[in-house]
Sequence to fold (550 residues):
Amino acid sequence: MSMGLTIIITGALVAASCGFLGCFLILRRMAMLGDAISHAVLPGIVIAFLMSGSRDSLPMLLGAAALGLLCTFFIQSLRSQGVQSDAAISVTFTALFAIGVILVSLYTRQVDLDLDCVLYGEIAYVPWDTLYLFGNNIGPKAIWGVGTAFILSFLVVGLFFKEFKIVSFDPQMAAALGIPVLLIHYLLMGLVSITTVASFESVGAILVVAMLTVPSATAYLLTDRLETMLAISVGVGILSSLFGYWLSLIFNASIAGSMTVAAGIFFILAFLFSPLHGVVTRWLIRRKMRAATDQP
Amino acid sequence: MQTSNRPVSVRDLSVAYHRKPVLRDVQFDAPEGKLIGIVGPNGAGKSTLIKAIMNLLPLTGGEVQIYGKPYKEQRALVGYVPQRESVDWDFPTSALDVVLMGRYGKLGWFRKPKAADREYAMDCLDKVGMADFAKRQISQLSGGQQQRVFLARSLAQDARIYFMDEPFVGVDAATEKAIIRILNELKTQKKTVLVVHHDLQTVREYFDWLLMLNMRQIAFGPTSEVFTTDNLQKTYGGRLTVLPDLPEPVAETR
Ligand SMILES: Nc1ncnc2c1ncn2[C@@H]1O[C@H](COP(=O)(O)OP(=O)(O)OP(=O)(O)O)[C@@H](O)[C@H]1O
Ligand SMILES: [Mg+2]
Fold:
């Protein structure tokens, strides 16, 4: 596989799986939860690293996923005790992130953990970090990691689609029907944690947040159907990866950054020209109607 | 009296939010096949009562039974129309999709709604006069139309007991009459309907039985017996300046 293609596929998988789950986050007005999880996993990564003593992905993945779930659990507990939702989110994730920062500053000299790499990722190195099975090179590790996260999200959301849908739209009705609302909530948060963590190596913690919100926000502007919204969100994610890679070649800039900028450009286009809600579209329609009524 | 014949039986119910009691001493047995009104001022605990009965809130005391068993075992028998403001109407979904959600309880895990469910949901939309709006995104419906979609969703639950939280808010007079016709149709099928209602002028016309509530139960019984000036004063306190026109027999009672 060529280097460019590997990078594009990795980026596309990250953007697609984040975009997929991001739809439910923004519909439940929890977009900031992605942000929270992506920060809160830092102590998990550091602890896993210190305990295993290796930069192997699996322990880090588990450590991070555990902290991600712990973070949502803290937020949920604070919220159910009457702390305001946004306050609960920000108190929890800043505290956990700070613990991570302290751990890094305490141990970073003894061990070789590159914080920049955790926070900003480096998708350009992805093609070289390959995985071996029985001595055979089976391709870049990142593709396996992110691909697994994507397939997992796809399967879980596919199996529980109607539950995810009704819990997002009307949690009280869902509870009245006997759907375990809290379980579905943690299932979504678990998937967000896993996807976030799997995406670290490529785009880094901070840019995951963008991928969790921007493609799904774009899709929201383009359709009135949840199923279509999920599809568009994945599509926009893949296009962002392609277009972003191309941008990074032209400007010789950070690949992950360019992919996020590309996603932002798609969002602005949808914001202005969406056939349903676009600002410019609505203006054009109004002008046409005014012209029609002005004519005798 | 056999409790298991009682659609809803509430014993000594009390509910508190963060230790602040909002409901206490609620105790009634709803008779089967009746339209039962729930009236009381804002903040009286009407929505809270419905949520507590449907196990959506923890009870601080008391017991609720649906046909003689706890709610958890009887979910399939209960339909629900929440207050319209309880959901985000900008959600990307159509009127038909929302009504289809009423079928989810019957489907169980891993099952997708089938053509038969769609037809059923479509019939329910038709009953509330919304068939033409099935494909409409729900934010593009008027408030009264959204209310009718919620009503259709509860019909799609195909229940024996219905709890409706202010189904008449924001609907025009013709729609209100249409909804009442549907409720009366449910009644002829031996179904029990409990409705939170605010318009005291129509209470007597619409409801067979009445629950009067203001943080505690003021009265419960046939409308003709409990809808009295005395009880209204107790329920609404000094806040009710204009009493509804009470017909002769009630006005005479003491
Ligand atoms: N989530 C909540 N947390 C704390 N207090 C609440 C909550 N929901 C309701 N309350 C309080 O409980 C009381 C009863 O509220 P409830 O919503 O049941 O009233 P209601 O009779 O349905 O009023 P309305 O006619 O306005 O719908 C009110 O005093 C309200 O302030
Ligand atoms: Mg209410």
Q: What stands out?
A: Confidence is low (pLDDT under 50) at residues 248-254 of chain B. The first strand of chain B starts at residue 8 and ends at 17. Residues 8-235 of chain B form a domain with the Rossmann fold fold (CATH 3.40.50.300).
